[in-house]
Write a structure and sequence with these properties.
The complex is a heterodimer of chains A (376) and B (134).
Chain A (H helix, E strand, L loop, with lengths): L7 E4 L14 E5 L2 H4 L2 H8 L6 E5 L8 H14 L3 E6 L1 H15 L21 E6 L11 E6 L4 E6 L7 E4 L9 H20 L5 H22 L5 H21 L3 H13 L3 H28 L11 H12 L12 H17 L12 H10 L4
Parallel strand pairs in A: 1-8, 2-3, 2-4, 4-5, 5-8
Antiparallel strand pairs in A: 6-7
Chain B lengths: L6 H12 L2 H6 L4 E9 L8 E8 L2 E8 L10 E6 H8 L5 H6 L3 E4 L2 H6 L1 H11 L7
Parallel strand pairs in B: 1-4
Antiparallel strand pairs in B: 1-2, 2-3, 4-5
The chains are: A alpha/beta (376), B alpha+beta (134).
The complex binds fe (ii) ion.
Fe (ii) ion binds next to helix 5 and helix 9 of chain A.
């Protein structure tokens, strides 16, 4: 017995106009300060029904933490929204999920957001996610990552009840995404597709979604990254990224995410850059358990990037789009890396990504994999 | 082969757990006790309890009983019906999916257990390695 869970997905050009059709009267918009100052949030507000009131809550940094959630929650409670709309990358959508849960259940402690017990949400409001990057898949997932400021740790919260009711994938929201963010978020999406495909919880739904996600992303990514992309190629990458999100949300992730979360928390590097950094070496390690599945995915790579195995194809693609292949290329010096190595390995071992990784790696193998990514 | 559940099965389980390299590694920072609760159903007429005192990758003490008053109150409880336990130790139910699908219940601090999810998995996986008579 297992489930396939998905929000209702509205996609393609003009999909934001869907907001006019669902009877929104009070919309709390959760976003980060950079986006709030840009025209993107304005586009969402303009798409709301005419008589709807809205309030923007933008007191979130790119890596929101508990304190930011708490300080925004009061305002959300006072506003009494009937819809909560997360607009942004993974962090804003994750913040929206947590705000939604805590607005619904004021007595809830943030750590009570687990899939192991029912929360009883959706008594006052419902949740919409509007991604402005193509990669995190947060719009399709029932997980939320939140930082702990003092502890250099990222916490993974999850509950089927924080899965958004609607995910709106409007390519207009990503058409002007800067190159660097396009690269890091698409690398995240590629990592989702690959890790969920080989997760020990993989299933027919996640298989189909991962394969199609890779086909859509790999077929258009270089064009999009190099700025020659039209709205159609952006749209394909955007849809592909959400499919990869749906895939991992229904079958889990693996060791590249375990290492990536730890690396990102310690060195403050973007999530996609961090997970992608480890993906080729994790694929090499896991090959002893899932060679055949990796070969199948390798066949989806376009001729121009396909090498003899998935690890090499990934390296070739990453080099072309500017995704760092080593810790050194990611800008971390040897000394800094060495002094954080053990903390990083132990954080990675605590990550739920280790639970479903196809190969059961112990602490020593995780450390060796990390060291193979040094590049010094 | 021991019957499941029984004192002899519990003894062999603890022996396996204490010789498991995977568990010694993933549980090396864990401090806390847990009780496996095997609830009665048509396959087994009585509730059974296996209390485990776990410390730094090792089981320091265990107690098996059919009487709940015999076992100390523990920080965590992993609870399921006898027939689901049988499926679990046959590897037919994944221990975490088991909780997510309502076949098992986990009581205790979620915040703590999430950080030791690999240790918890290795602990339950060890149960699949003890031969038994159903
Ligand atoms: Fe990710």
């Amino acid at each position: 017995m297992w489930y396939f869970r998905s929000p209702q997905i509205v996609y393609g050009p003009d999909s934001l106009s869907f907001l006019q059709t669902i009877g929104i009267s009070r919309a709390a918009i959760i976003t980060d300060s950079t986006l709030a100052a840009s025209g993107i949030v304005q586009k969402v507000i303009q798409s709301l029904p005419e008589n709807a009131s809205s309030k923007v809550f933008s007191g979130f940094s790119p890596e929101p933490d508990f304190l930011q959630i708490k300080s925004n929650l009061e305002g959300v409670n006072a506003f009494r929204p009937d819809w909560i709309i997360g607009v942004g990358g993974g962090s804003s959508m994750d913040a929206a999920k947590i705000i939604f849960a805590m607005y619904e259940k004021p007595d809830l402690q943030v750590y009570d957001i687990t899939p192991l017990s029912p929360l009883g949400l959706r008594k006052k409001s419902r949740l919409i996610a509007v991604p402005t990057t193509s990669g995190t898949g947060s719009e399709c997932s029932w997980a939320a990552v939140i930082s702990e400021r003092e502890e250099k740790r990222k916490n993974e919260l999850a509950s089927p009840e924080i899965l958004p009711d609607y995910a709106i994938l409007d390519p207009e929201m990503v058409i002007n995404l800067p190159r660097q963010q396009t690269v890091s978020t698409s690398v995240d999406a590629i990592t989702h597709a690959i890790e969920s495909y080989t997760s020990s919880w993989n299933n027919p739904y996640s298989d189909a979604l991962s394969e199609k996600a890779l086909e859509l992303i790999l077929g258009s990514l270089v064009q999009v990254v190099e700025g020659n992309g039209d709205i159609e190629s952006r749209d394909r990458v955007h849809i592909g990224a959400s499919m990869a999100g749906l895939s991992f949300s229904n079958s889990q992730i693996g060791m590249a995410h375990a290492l990536g979360h730890a690396f990102g928390a310690i060195f403050k590097k973007p999530h996609g850059t961090s997970v992608g950094l480890f993906l080729p070496e994790v694929v090499a390690l896991n090959s002893r358990a899932s060679r055949e599945r990796y070969d199948r995915l390798n066949r989806i790579f376009p001729d121009s990037f396909r090498e003899g195995n998935l690890q090499s194809s990934l390296k070739k693609l990453f080099a072309r789009i500017g995704q760092p292949l080593t810790v050194k290329e990611a800008g971390i010096g040897r000394k800094e890396m060495e002094s954080n190595r053990d903390a990083l390995v132990s954080l990675a071992m605590e990550s739920t990504g280790m639970l479903t990784n196809p190969y059961e790696a112990g602490t020593d193998e995780v450390r060796e994999t990390l060291e193979r990514c040094y590049g010094y | 082969m021991p019957k499941f559940p029984s004192e002899e099965w519990a003894r062999q389980y603890v022996e396996k757990l204490n010789s498991s390299e995977a568990y010694r590694d993933s549980g090396k920072k864990w401090e806390g006790d847990i009780t496996f609760v095997i609830q009665k159903d048509e396959g087994n007429p009585t509730d059974s309890f296996l209390y485990l005192d776990l410390y730094h990758g090792e089981c320091r003490k265990y107690l098996y009983s059919a009487n709940p008053d015999d076992v100390p109150k523990s920080e965590f409880r992993y609870i399921g019906k006898y027939s689901n336990w049988i499926k679990l130790i046959h590897s037919e139910i994944d221990p975490i999916k088991g909780v997510l699908t309502g076949k098992f219940k986990l009581e205790g601090s979620m915040m703590k257990i999430m950080r030791f999810s690999k240790a918890a998995k290795d602990m339950v996986n060890t149960a699949t390695m003890v031969p038994f008579e159903g």
